[in-house]
Design a protein that fits this description.
This protein has 427 residues and is of the alpha+beta class. It has 16 helices and 6 strands. The protein has 2 domains: 30-142, Glutaredoxin (3-Layer(aba) Sandwich); 163-424, no CATH class. The chain has a 4-stranded mixed sheet with strand order 2-1-3-4, sandwiched between helices. Strand 3 (94-97) and strand 4 (100-103) form a beta hairpin. The N and C termini lie far apart (123 Å).
């Protein structure tokens, strides 16, 4: 009898221990993160430090780190996981937790990842590898991580998690639109067209010219962004972009004080007579409509190449900023459209005014100086923030601070030129 009691007690003890071990296992299931990174990527390094601290706070968290630079296998895995999660991932860092994926790393993404990890420690989340293999379904995502996207017809899912990208795009495009090189060319062309006294000619040539130059400029921007996406978020890319922006900024500010003296990002004086002659031939000679459009297209392409050194600064900085923020896909498409529309606003305004009034005025040197100053100080502040404090551009307030600093710098330099420098002039 005693032996039976002992055996029964032993069995009962084993059953209780098994149940206890199962309950412990259920509450300590590991939350698995798949973290894709690349050596030299500053955002990847920032997230890696964050994930290490997150692991210290959540012992059940497991981070699978995947370096893609020298591993075709990891690169293939990143592509496959992206397809499984419904995203075309072309940059890192990329982070997969449960049914969610994040591309890039910002303060907002950091908060969302931490929130997701807390959710997964309390509610079992699927291992991303099991989701890829189709062995488990993804759980519901917390509401706070779903509110950051919007689905647009014919476009797809657009990430609205950071309004700073939209704000910086709008402001950079606005300043870029007031480029003295492109405005000089447009006002000169329209000035010659007025003498033909043909509104039809003005509309045909003007719209064709704007369409071609904008298309060529847009292709240049797309090429820059594609190159950044291909290269990735390397530190030397950030340094290169900052150096380019800083150089353009200094030269433009120099032009405000000493216009066209020394190095200057303007249309060369030797090229301007050739442009003028082509314009006169285009507007004065009799052309059929197809010939007129064709000649305008060829001329616009040539002028776009001639003025590219004058206009390239802002696209380089803008695409560099988007690359560090991990923007891609449909979100970039929307930002690109916003950029091009705002960039063209001032030229369309000039064109519309001339078409209606048949009156035009040339861009004066003082106007060109002012435009150079604003563009130069903005590129300078963008370069400094991009290199030393890139996180500023990841928030709306930080973006406004950068642009506010540029505007304040412009006003200070105007004061120096108008009030301070005359005091040192030899009379």
């Amino acid at each position: 009898m005693n032996n039976r009691l002992k055996v029964s007690g032993l069995v009962l003890t084993l059953i209780l221990l098994s149940l206890f071990s199962l309950s412990v296992g259920a509450t300590n299931d590991e939350t698995v993160i798949y973290f894709f990174k690349m050596e030299g990527c500053p955002r990847c390094a920032e997230e890696e430090d964050f994930l290490e601290k997150l692991q210290n706070r959540h012992p059940s968290l497991e981070v699978e780190k995947k370096e893609i630079r020298d591993s075709e296998e990891n690169l293939k895995l990143l592509k496959e996981m992206g397809e499984e999660y419904g995203q075309e991932i072309r940059t890192v860092p990329a982070t997969f937790i449960g049914g969610d994926v994040w591309v890039g790393f910002t303060k907002k993404i950091e908060n969302q990842i931490e929130e997701k990890v807390k959710y997964c420690t309390e509610n079992r989340c699927v291992n991303p590898m099991l989701k890829l293999k189709g062995e488990a379904a993804a759980p519901e995502t917390p509401t706070s991580t779903k509110e950051e996207t919007i689905n647009l017809p014919f476009v797809g899912t657009v990430d609205l998690s950071s309004m700073s990208a939209f704000m910086s795009t709008a402001l950079i495009a606005f300043v870029d639109g007031f480029n003295p090189c492109s405005l000089w060319v447009l006002t000169f062309l329209l000035g010659l067209l007025i003498y033909t006294k043909s509104r039809k000619k003005i509309v045909i040539v003007g719209l064709t010219f704007l369409a071609v130059t904008a298309s060529a400029y847009g292709l240049f921007i797309l090429g820059l962004f594609s190159a950044f996406q291909y290269i990735g978020q390397l530190l030397w890319i950030r340094v290169l972009v900052a150096v380019i922006a800083f150089s353009f900024g200094l030269v433009n500010i120099k032009d405000y004080f000493w216009f066209k003296e020394g190095i200057s990002f303007t249309i060369p004086e030797s090229v301007k007579p050739k442009i003028a002659d082509k314009f006169r031939n285009l507007t004065q000679k009799s052309h059929s409509l197809p010939a007129l459009v064709g000649a305008t297209v060829l001329m616009a392409l040539g002028i776009t190449l001639a003025e590219l050194p004058c206009t390239a600064g802002f696209p380089v900085v803008w695409t560099g900023i988007l690359n560090t923020q991990g923007v891609s896909g449909a979100t970039f498409g929307i930002l690109f459209l916003i950029y091009m529309v705002i960039y063209l606003l001032d030229e369309l305004l000039v064109f519309g005014t001339v078409s209606i009034t048949l009156q035009s005025s040339k861009l004066q040197e003082e106007h060109g100086r002012a435009l150079k100053l604003v563009g130069g100080t903005l590129m300078l502040t963008l370069a400094v923030s991009f290199l030393f404090a890139p996180e500023l551009m990841n928030s709306l307030m930080g973006t406004l601070i950068v642009f506010g600093a540029a505007l304040s710098g412009s006003l200070l330099l105007v004061l120096i030129r108008k009030k301070v420098l005359p005091m040192f002039e030899v009379k």
